[in-house]
Amino acid sequence: MRPPVPPLPLADGQREVLRTLSRSSLAAHREVVAARALLLAAEGAANTAIGAQVGVSPTTVASWRERFAEEGLSGLGRVRPGRGRKPPITAEKVAEIVRATLSDTPPGETHWSCRSMAKAQGVSAASVQRIWSELGLKPHQVTTFKLSNDPKFEEKLTDVVGLYLNPPEKAVVLCVDEKSQIQALDRTQPSLPLKKGRAGTMTHDYKRNGTTTLFAALDVATGEVIGQCLPRHRHDEFLKFLRTIDRQVPKRLAIHMILDNYGTHTHPNVNAWLQKRPRFHLHFTPTSSSWLNLVERWFRDLTVKAIRRGVFPSVPDLITAIDAYLQANNDDPTPLVWTASAQSILDKVRRGHDTLTAITSQK
Fold first, then answer.
1. For residue 324, how far is the Cα from the chain centroid?
2. DSSP codes joined into one string, 147-188
C-alpha cells in the first residue's frame, strides 16, 4: 500500500487567501474548487477523499498539490500550456475563412453562405457561423446607397437643413411630394384572421383595380399633413394641390415648400401661378437625395400601416383608407424632428466619395 500523503503545509497568509477564495462567488469555478481541495489537503485528507468531496479525480488533486508546492498561490487553478480543450479550428484556418469571405465568391454565385463556405474550407457550417458572428461578417446581407452628383449639392443641402433647424418666423415649412401609382389591390381569396398560435394570412396573388396618386404636404413643425388623392400625376394636378395648400394655410403665413426636382414642380404653368403668389417659396433637394424630404418617411408609414396589408375592391375604397389614415394622423400629429447638421452630412458624403474613388482606382 502507498504511504499516506502528508498534510499540505500552509502559511497563515496562504490559508486565509484559500478560505476567502473557496467562498467566492466571483472567482473562476476551477479556482474555487482548487482552493477547497488544498484546504482539505492541509487538514491531512487523502487525495481520493478530497476528489470525491470536491468532484474531481485524485490525479487532479495530486497535480494541484504538486503545483502549489512549486508555485504557491500564483499557479492556483491555472491550466498549463498544452492542457485543456484544443481549439477545433486553427488560427490559420480562421484567417483563411475571413480572407475568402472578404475577397472571394463561390463559383457561379454572388456571395458566400455558411454551407458553401464550410464546404470550401472543410469545416462545419456551425463553425463558419460562429466565426462570422464573432467578427460581425454578414455576406448574406447588402445595403444600398446613392451619392448625389448634383453640382449644387452643398448649396441645396444647406438650404433645406437650414429650414429644418432654423425655420423662418411667421412662416410654415412644408415637405411636399407625390406618392404616385398607389394600387388598389384586392386578393383573389378571402384572408384568414389572426388567431392564437397562427398569424393572419392572405393570398400572395391579387387583382389590380386601378391606381391613385397622393399629393401630400407635411408640416415640419406640427406633423400635420395636407393630403389630396388625384387620378393622375401631371402639372395640372399639382396646381390643384397647390390651390388646396393656399386655401388651408392661413394667409398671414409665408409658405416654404421642400420638393424634389421632378419636372411637374417646375412646369411653366406652375411657375406662372407661383409668381402671382409671392408667399410661396420653393426649396429643391439635391438630385438622388429624397432622404432629405421628411414626407418620404411619412409615406413609408402610410404604406406599412394602411396600404400594404389592405384589401381594396376599388379605387374609392383605397382613397377612403388613405383619407382615414390622414385624419388619424392629423388628430394626433407627431412632428418628425431633424437633428443632423449640414456639416455632418457633408463630411459623411465626402467620405463616401473618397471611398468610391479609392475603390475605383484599385480596379
1. 30
2. ----TTHHHHHHHHHHHHHSPPTTEEEEEEEEEEEEEEEEES
One DSSP character per residue, 54-115 reads HTS-HHHHHHHHHHHHHHGGGGTTPPPTT-SPPPSS-HHHHHHHHHHHHH---TT-SS--HH
pLDDT digits (tens, 9 = 90+) for 228-263: 999 998 999 999 999 999 999 999 999 999 999 888
**What are 3's three cell numbers?**
504511504
Using pLDDT thresholds of 50, 70 and 90, give the confidence band for residue 129: very high
pTM tops 0.70: no
Q: Mean pLDDT across the stretch 197-214? A: 89
Query: CA 75, CA 14: separation in Å to the nearest integer?
Result: 13
d(CA 160, CA 294): 11
- Whole-angstrom Cα distance, residue 267 to residue 242? 13
174/257 Cα distance (integer angstroms):
5
Residue 153's CB is within 10 A of a number of other CB atoms, namely 19
